[in-house]
Amino acid sequence: MSEGSGQSDPYISVRNVTIGFELGANRKLVAVKDISFDIQRGEILGVVGESGSGKSMLAKAILQLVPPPGRIEQGSIFLDGVDILRLSDDQMRARVRGTQVSMIFQEPLSALNPSFSVQWQIEEVYKLHTNDDRRTRRSKAIDLLRQVKIPDPERRISEYPHQFSGGMQQRVLIAIALACSPKLLIADEPTTALDVTVQADIMDLLEEMRDRTGLAILLISHNLNLVAERSDRIMVLYASELMEMGPSGRIAEHPLHPYTVGLMNSVPDIEVEDQKITAIPGEMADLTLRGVGCVFQPRCRMAMDVCARVSPELVEVEPNHFCRCHLFGNTPPQEGLSDG
After folding, report:
1. Which of 37, 9, 12, 18 is nearest to 245 (CA)?
2. Is 229 exposed, middle or buried (0-12, 13-18, 19+ CB in 10 A)?
3. Is pTM, for the whole model, over 0.70?
4. Which helix (H) or strand (E) segment is 127 a member of?
């Protein structure tokens, strides 16, 4: 069963990836559990979920940057047909990171080095991956700043990160990420700490780059409204597992999984007056104490007796719309609702 968008020839195919952290004393944390998905060329795939759900760790797996003591325990990641999990670190640096796949990290001021000018930080990418001379590197760097719509790039290229606003810092990070024309951009919370109008500008810029170059984007965010509006498809993660995946419009209008419904109900709509915001009860389970049954069951308002005993499978409820829930699986909901 394919869990992609239904198209052929995806640019990246993640298959059955599991990431574990051995914590000692017979304790283990599973940060990502058996997740599969595809991303097509020119597609924006949004990933949402609470903190600790596995979003950023999944992104780091694509770049083989899972921090120790974590490791990718199983699975494959095919990039243009090549399983990059079989590549060495040197091969990843030379052939994948920054060239085929780039990442925009959270917190632009932390990601940029305050000790070096913007010019130095952009040109460093060209030094690593090209044979360009100094004049060519500077010309390309200025052109990149122009592409990401930084005014007066010839002057501003010599400035330092603290001389840029938060939105402009994020544009610099995007310029660095796009320096070697990657085919996949991982955007990890690209609008964090930015005001609403700047968020819209950043997302407009990413969409413009996608439309012009065919760039595939993995958009990671806790903001379900942003992802629903800007992505083609959505993946919903909870406690390291894939709960629901499908077309953005379909999930926004008709979410299937109770967790997705809870996320939708907990996000305020600025166009609705006197609305009731309903928080998801409880807290995410301790991932070192994973037991049997559905991992969301302790917080689920629709939980049945079977949910505490049997872990549900990910099933295709509608074309290209997948859900991991006994309400939509092969187990008949005949045991009635529990008090959970």
Report:
1. 37
2. middle
3. yes
4. helix 118-129
Among the listed residues 319, 119, 228, the one whose alpha carbon sits nearest the alpha carbon of residue 236: 228
Identify any residues that bridge with 234 across adjacent strands, giving them in sequence order.
46, 246
Beta-carbon contacts of 5 under 8 Å, excluding residues fewer than 6 positions away, are 38, 40, 43, 232, 233, 320
- Count CA within 13 A, CB hemisphere, residue 137: 18
How many CA atoms within 13 Å lie on the side-chain side of 30?
A: 17
94: how many CB neighbours lie within 10 A of its CB?
A: 14
Strands 321-324 and 314-318: antiparallel
For 304-315, the pLDDT digits (tens) are 999 999 999 999
Which string of b and e fits 270-279 if b means at least 16 CB within 10 Å? eeeeeeeeee
Tell me, what amino acid is at 129?
A: H
Alpha carbons 69 and 59: distance in angstroms, whole number: 17
pLDDT, tens only, 79-92: 988 999 999 999 99
Half-sphere exposure (CA, 13 Å, Cβ side) for 195? 3
